[in-house]
Amino acid sequence: LSGLDPAQPYFQGTPTEVRLDKSDADFVDIIHTDSAPTIPNLGFGMRPAVGHIDFYPNGGEEMPGCGKNPVSQIVDLDGIWEGTRDFVACNHLRSYKYYSDSIIYPDGFLGYPCASYDLFQEGGCFPCPEGGCPNMGHYADKFKDKVKTDFMKLYLNTGEARDFPLWRYKVTVTLSGKSKVKGYVNVALYGTGGNTKQYQITKGALKPGNTYTAYIDVEVNVGEVTKVKFLWNNNWINPTLPKLGAATITVEAGQNR
């Protein structure tokens, strides 16, 4: 049984007979997309974990792409009716959109078990545990026999619009060169499953010999990494023409470590 952002008003905090609960089926998975308090935030979805596994995409409160200005949202690609509904209840309705996307991405929407979204964002719950991560949505039941705890809270990030799934990687760059400069470092991944756009690993002071780490959520499962593109820029013309390179770049996929 899959709960798509089960309702908060009149249901949150009520006895299990009244609301959705893991006692309702052999396996209950929940997607929370609008769990901010109803007052004053108008959150329609409940916050507590009530299933065998509970997914909190993007932290479970504010979904990317839902903060667009009302006009652009109402005259949406999906038409005026869909856009109007999204304007009124965009976060709440993301749950079924994630679910429908999950059907065509059996390897997508990996939920990382974690104590909080902040900890997940910092990379504290990376990579997936030995037994793997469950997939949010249609294929969540593949994880049915692996649930060991009473409640399992899972976190992940999604895109702003279709296609929604993102894949998480840890990228570590050690710089080489002769002089310290200011600027940013970008990396793009290439692999057997596709290529990503550039993602920023760090910005500010760049010092040769230093190591910089970032957790990136990319728009394609690159599969086996075949190439990594490294780019740095210092944003302004520097007459000394400083040179920076990457001594090493390490890429770790959250999915299979």
From TrEMBL:
What does the record give as EC number? 3.1.1.26
Q: Where is the PLAT domain?
A: 167-257
- EC top class named in words: hydrolase
Q: Which keywords, in A-to-Z order, does the entry hold?
A: Cell projection, Cytoplasmic vesicle, Disulfide bond, Hydrolase, Lipid degradation, Lipid metabolism, Secreted
Q: Which reaction does it catalyse?
A: 1,2,3-tripropanoylglycerol + H2O = dipropanoylglycerol + propanoate + H(+); 1,2-dioctanoyl-3-O-[alpha-D-galactosyl-(1->6)-beta-D-galactosyl]-sn-glycerol + H2O = octanoyl-3-O-[alpha-D-galactosyl-(1->6)-beta-D-galactosyl]-sn-glycerol + octanoate + H(+); 1-beta-D-galactosyl-2,3-didodecanoyl-sn-glycerol + H2O = 1-beta-D-galactosyl-dodecanoyl-sn-glycerol + dodecanoate + H(+); 1,2-didodecanoyl-3-beta-D-galactosyl-sn-glycerol + H2O = dodecanoyl-3-beta-D-galactosyl-sn-glycerol + dodecanoate + H(+)
Q: Name one GO biological process term.
A: lipid catabolic process
Its name, as the record gives it, is Pancreatic lipase-related protein 2
Annotated source species: Ploceus nigricollis
State the encoding gene: Pnliprp2_1
